[in-house]
Amino acid sequence: MVENILGIDTKKVFEFTKVLSADDVESFADASGDTQPLHLDDEMAGKSRFKKRIAHGILTAGVISAAIGTKVAPGKVVIYMGQSLRFLAPVYLGDAITAKLSVISINAPRRLVTLKASVVNQDGQEVLTGQSEVMIEPYEE
Fold this sequence. Notes:
37% strand
């Protein structure tokens, strides 16, 4: 069944792509308070195993949130209920990362959708994997 009671296309892969810039990383550091030099200081990051600055892991996971909020159920309220994450590879400044979400299961009476989540870079390398749980509700009229 392609359409279910919540109106979610269970056969579709929902995608959202963003290029992570230095401004994105610096704004996230400012907003979150995570000022780890690995994300902000070229010289310090150059001495790390990564050899250059990388994006915060949670900023990378933010593209999952963007896909959930804008692609899974447009026109409905989508409430983030839970997330598991496994970071597989670094995301460098300037990388184009794409969140890919697919439906694992739907609990229609509770309005819950469980999604397989993956983030890949511009080379198709998976940099993050996980599972998301969201609640879908209509806007109140």
